[in-house]
Amino acid sequence: MKGIILAGGTGSRLRPLTGPLSKQLLPVYDKPMIYYPLSVLMLAGIRDILVISSPQHSGLFRGLLGDGSRLGLRIDYAEQDSPNGIAEAFLIGADHIQDEDVALILGDNVFHGPGFSQLLQSAVAEHEGCTLFGYPVTDPGRYGVGEVDAAGRLVSLEEKPLRPRSNLAITGLYLYDSEVVSIAKNIAPSDRGELEITDVNRVYLEQGRARLSRLGRGFAWLDMGTHESLLQAGQYVQVLEQRQGERIACVEEVALRMGFITREHCLRLGRSMAGTGYGDYLLDVASRFPAPAG
């Protein structure tokens, strides 16, 4: 499965923080925002990733992530000239996807919860058609909303409904088969001229090939589109990291635990940031990681 991180847009709701700087490069406590969606794709076992950003910010992402080899990944880049809807990512990324399944994640989303890696890997292994992830919220009218029947089957999808049929918001993580490219090419733009992801998802639903995986109690999904939500996400990460002594979305640690890089490579990465809390954490993680047998 290929991966796409959509990190475009203007970040207008976060001005003056944004402008010359992409929203997805802002700090969320101790690391750049894009580390959080990147770590999700990595936890799913995905190593071939396309980062889509605005033209003025593309060089900044390249400077941060490079070609991905330091994390055992392959990272490529593409540009979205203007924010024309989430589904445009499949048109921009068509050459990246080719005939493979693809996971799309929004660059301003944080996912965290017990057993998340296992949930992701199971979803990837069992994936057919379209897999969405639903999360219960108190204000579903702000989101795309999924309705399920008594058996847990997805039966309807609505975009920001005035009278939501459920409280299950569709999060910014989506799994698709390769047909998503042709489906995105054939949907009509919305009144705002955007290619809506909900319209893509409805096609799969009408074909009987869409399912919803619920992220339930004990799980956190955060969308960092405003100053308030950005601050809340940083505080959430800070509290958990300081209480538990483990870092959320530490991409070097994820790469090590997923087998993308070796213990020795992780030690080198830690030494390159020696004297910082982040670097010292990496050194500690790598030093305690089991050495290869033999």
Automatic annotation (TrEMBL):
It catalyses: dTTP + alpha-D-glucose 1-phosphate + H(+) = dTDP-alpha-D-glucose + diphosphate. The keyword Nucleotidyltransferase applies. It comes from the Bacteria. This is Glucose-1-phosphate thymidylyltransferase. Catalyzes the formation of dTDP-glucose, from dTTP and glucose 1-phosphate, as well as its pyrophosphorolysis. GO terms for molecular function: glucose-1-phosphate thymidylyltransferase activity. Belongs to the glucose-1-phosphate thymidylyltransferase family. The keyword Nucleotidyltransferase applies. Residues 2-236 form the Nucleotidyl transferase domain. Its EC number is 2.7.7.24. NCBIfam families: rmlA. Its cofactor is Mg(2+). Signal peptide: none annotated. Keywords: Magnesium, Metal-binding, Nucleotidyltransferase, Transferase. It is an enzyme of class 2 (transferase).
